[in-house]
Write a structure and sequence with these properties.
Blueprint (H helix, E strand, L loop, with lengths): L5 H12 L5 H16 L5 H86 L3 H70 L1
Length: 203
């Protein structure tokens, strides 16, 4: 068990002796006794006895005053101690608020970094799904060659188609001329037959 401190002793005495509320009454009694002693015509023995009583009362008053001063000093020390504790608590609260604010900033930075990483990963996946520039240029060159080849084929087909159109036109013209010739021949034959019929009737 630890040693008993002075503050604990003073507290115990205060609990036993009271809070010194009767000091004013003792001082008033001491003044009255002193006044009575000064004007008392009694014997020296009675005066000495009364003097000893006044010394006892004065000692009690001095003890009570000393006790009150000790309690006052103790209260001052406790107040200083409480102020230090309160100051430490305020500093700890301020430090805790600062740490909380810093943690919030760190959380926001972490969220922003995480969001940027997610966007970067998504963009990287999109980029990976498409060929790179070199591969794209190769594909464009191949498509350009194929387009040129198709253009040549189209030109050849157009030329052949134009030739076929001309040949078909010549064929249609020939057919029309042939048909006209056949019609003319048929008409001429019919005319000849008409002329032969009257001659035969006259004979």
């Amino acid at each position: 068990m630890g040693a008993v401190t002075d503050d604990e002793v003073i507290r115990k005495r205060l609990l036993i002796d009271g809070d010194g509320a009767g000091d004013d009454r003792r001082i008033n009694l001491l003044l009255k006794s002193f006044t009575k002693w000064c004007h008392s015509p009694g014997s020296p023995e009675e005066g000495f006895t009364q003097y000893q009583r006044m010394l006892g009362t004065l000692a009690q008053c001095e003890f009570s005053m000393g006790k009150t001063l000790m309690v006052y000093d103790m209260n001052l020390r406790e107040m200083e101690n409480y102020e230090k504790i309160y100051s430490n608590i305020e500093q700890n609260i301020t430090s805790a608020h600062d740490k909380i604010a810093e943690c919030k900033k760190e959380i926001q930075r972490a969220k922003r970094i995480r969001k940027n990483r997610q966007e970067y990963d998504a963009l990287a996946k999109i980029i990976q799904q498409h060929p790179d520039r070199h591969e794209t240029l190769k594909q464009l060159e191949a498509l350009d060659k194929e387009l040129q080849h198709l253009s040549h084929i189209k030109e050849n087909v157009d030329a052949k188609l134009e030739l076929r159109k001309k040949q078909f036109h010549v064929l249609l013209t020939t057919i029309q001329e042939l048909q006209q010739t056949l019609e003319n021949d048929e008409k001429s034959d019919n005319d000849d037959q008409s002329q032969d019929s009257p001659a035969q009737n006259g004979e």
